[in-house]
Amino acid sequence: MRAKEIRNTFIEFFKTKQHSFVPSSPIVVKNDPTLMFTNAGMNQFKDYFLGNETPKVNRVANSQKCLRVSGKHNDLEEVGVDTYHHTMFEMLGNWSFGDYFKKEAIEWAWELLTQVYKLPKDRLYVSVFGGDPQDELDKDMEAFDLWKSIVDEERIIFGSKKDNFWEMGDTGPCGPCSEIHIDLRSEDEIAQVSGKSLVNEDHPQVIEIWNLVFMQFNRQSDGSLNPLPATHVDTGMGFERLVRAIQGKTSNYDTDVFMPFIAELEKKSGKKYGQEEKLDIAFRVVVDHIRAIAFTIADGQLPSNNKAGYVIRRILRRAVRYGYTFLGFNKPFINELMPLLAENFGEMFPEIASQQDFIAKVIFEEESSFLRTLENGLKRLEQIRAELKDNKEQVIDGKTAFELYDTYGFPLDLTSLIARENDLSVDEKGFQTEMEKQKTRSRSAAEQETGDWVLVNEDNGVEFVGYDSLEADTKILRYREIKEKKGTKYQVVLETTPFYAESGGQVGDKGLLQSEEEKIKVVDTKRENDLIVHFVDKLPANPSVAFHAQVDARKRSFTMNNHTATHLLQSALKTVLGEHVQQKGSLVNDQLLRFDFSHFSKMTEEEIQRVESLVNEKIRENIQLDEKRDVPIQEAEAMGATALFGEKYGDFVRVITFGSDYSVELCGGTHVPSTGKIGYFKIVSESSIASGVRRIEAITANAAEDYINQQLALVKEVQEILRNPKDLKKAVEMLISEKNELKKEIEALHVGQAAGIKEELKKQVQQQAGVNVLVSQVNLPSADALKKLAFELKNELAPIVAVLAADIQGKPQVAVIIDEELVKDKGLNAGQIVRDLAKEIQGGGGGQPFFATAGGKKIEGLPAVVEKAKSLFANLK
Ligand code: ATP
Ligand code: MG
């Protein structure tokens, strides 16, 4: 069975068990402060388990893109070294939200694996939670008995809390689980050692393929467990591992999921896979990492220097360096795998196919820039090696290794490898200490302590009324405190709220929450999964009473102008620049709008103007808002609505239309009733923020008016300074050309003046011991003129010794010139002399033995310089 068919079979199997298919949610997580990347199938269903939201259907099957490279699940160091952990992988899952429980989950899993996929029963083992005294939990006998009825008891293992109790995080839904493991060793090996003894022992051929989690508890922040109101099933099966088991391979990389990529790399590198372990690891790293990088970029996360962006950058560097060191790639090559990726994954994940050029471009730039630092880093290492030459210990210390890591992006293993090649070693402990230091620095700043929610009123769900109203009578459902170094934050959840929570680029609303007794400021509103969380300046003294919620209408109204203008802008960009324009980020607040989009070159002045005037035209047409809520997603797609990659859409969406032939977008934001309200739109900047991504900043309404007025006021001021000429542009041009003329004239005058001075000076020369001695005070326009004069005298009066004490526009300078011959013959040194003379003008300077200058502060000291110089040369022999 080919990989694609294996995936379809999974989904189809669960459809026959009344499950609905749900597409993968984006790999980059938004609206969840505890998670950067999706690391399990359950992430997108978290709110169902927490009871924040009611699912529309209670049986679901899916294939979720997961990334395990940070936080609680981090497999990065294993990837490539072993053959069954990936950075990005697909997790197949079936789900019950308060519907079926252990019995069906266990029976169906067994049926699918053994009857549909026909995996041999005598190669499978299952594990069951073995209890935990600390949590006061017994063995999961319910699961054990269910397994016993279909599996030989010999194949059932009781496992520890670590392996058989699944937790979402430090707090939240959790429960016992049953894992299914498969033994893929040869008959010979099996005859020697039983598979059972190798389960959960990190044996590369005895691996976990499926985890069935039975959610039945909620972990509180004090560590205690409360039963959940309803029980759920959450299963996760690694797609790549399943394919390997069914295709009978000993490595995930030998399946048709990865083989095309390995073959391509073999062609490009001229090296063979499967001959040398070091090279094989490099092959695996590269073909694994390309998926993680591409999928993440496709979902809107660009490589950068912090957070999720840095995680992607690190993965990419890891791939580049393996390619560089082991496969001989010293030019970007990973980006060239994109067409193959689109061909293999584009059908299941259309975001890969449609953005492949953009993704390739981003990867190319990242590769190129890292290859540059990689080479610099290697040079730095060379230098370090030279410095260590006479050092007996031959150890690169931790600080230096960390510098290589931090400044040049060198992973420690790369530093160690190169060190070994040069008979050096690395103080790895010292490196870890430096790393720890940095981590603590960043951790302590971000550290926060999140309190449990305190429930106030009965929770029957939250209602957002902010599309239709800016105020509402409401109740507080729950509140909590979040302690941070900077201070404490307070959060409340309301039953009915008019406050828009930050999302889709639009900032959260601000406003007031009032009861009879008190007034509380809402300073921000954000989403946490599907909860609308209001950040307030203090907690209410009496939270259970009735409240009136009111949004700051002025701020909201300006924000709406900017949001609608963003939609008009996106369509205008597509019209003017082309359909390749994709939104890559946006920010909409009451001051301005910022729109990032894919486009490969700087916009010309003319393009900017065309975009601007198209948007303004649409504003003047005063197009009515057409807002449709709860449109089935397929219908919205049929309407041609613009959707955003990396955004999680449900089955029903909101469609915002301003002219069905102009702007149709899936959007949850707030918009003006008709475009005329925006008044006026003005682009204030267009720039590049990353390779292939441009940014436009624009303003609307009163802000745009103020901007234009300021510009006009500026012109007026300039006009007044220039005494109101008829033609301002011409007047300025004339001013500049006049200035240039004058400059030329002054230069000519200076030349003439200098020539005159030089002739004067020549007359003052005195012969002494066969040397031309000249000491004089002069007035000169610039330091350059002094230097020029000095060198001319040197050429024309050789052999010469001269001191010029110059008044340069009121500032004293001294120049000393000595013929090279005299430097040798008479042991004179201009640098020393000038330093001595400079004392008279309270200054300092230096230079070479034949020419030196000094500047100073005391102009009245110039005659003293002359006196001193004269006496210095009086005895010249
Ligand atoms: P392991 O112990 O092998 O790391 P796990 O206990 O971390 O697995 P779960 O969190 O239970 O795995 O995830 C469910 C399933 O997802 C696993 O049974 C496995 O098939 C798959 N899986 C987990 N991590 C990875 C990974 N890094 N790459 C590929 N598949 C994975
Ligand atoms: Mg794991």
Briefly summarize what is shown:
This protein is of the alpha+beta class.
Hey, roughly how much beta strand do the residues contain?
25-35%
DSSP, total strands: 36
Mean pLDDT over the full residue set: 92
User: By helix and strand content, what is the structural category?
Assistant: alpha+beta
Helix content: 25-40%
Quaternary structure of the protein: single chain
Amino- and carboxy-terminal Cα gap = 103 Å
Uncertain segments: none
Number of helices: 25
From the alpha-carbon coordinates, what is the Rg to the nearest angstrom? 37 Å
How would you sum up the major sheet? 9 strands, mixed
What bound compounds does this protein have?
adenosine-5'-triphosphate, magnesium ion
Shape field: globular
List keywords for this structure.
about 900 residues; alpha+beta; nine-stranded mixed beta sheet; binds adenosine-5'-triphosphate; binds magnesium ion
